[in-house]
Amino acid sequence: MEGIFGVIKLLMLCGSVLLLTLMVLLSLPQSKMRDVLVRIFGWIFALFCAGYVVMPLDVLPEAFLGPLGLVDDAGAVVAGVMSASAAWKAGRKQQVSA
Prior knowledge:
Oligomer: single chain
Structural class: mainly alpha
Number of strands: 0
């Protein structure tokens, strides 16, 4: 049993080191990894926001709050558009530099 916990502890330590290294690489101003990840996660988040707007479950339900319940949907639309815009700009920046 101690062997399993030792392996789990080692995996957690290695994962933490990798995550810290990734965070440092992403914080560098001229990092190409930043542009790639902004592109990927920007489009993923934009799709998530679109799914949230279409999904019938809401944080603020319209059935109880009326028009005030549309605030979370409007926020998701704004966040999705801004995320897609950032992903688009990162893609254009990557094409120009290539």
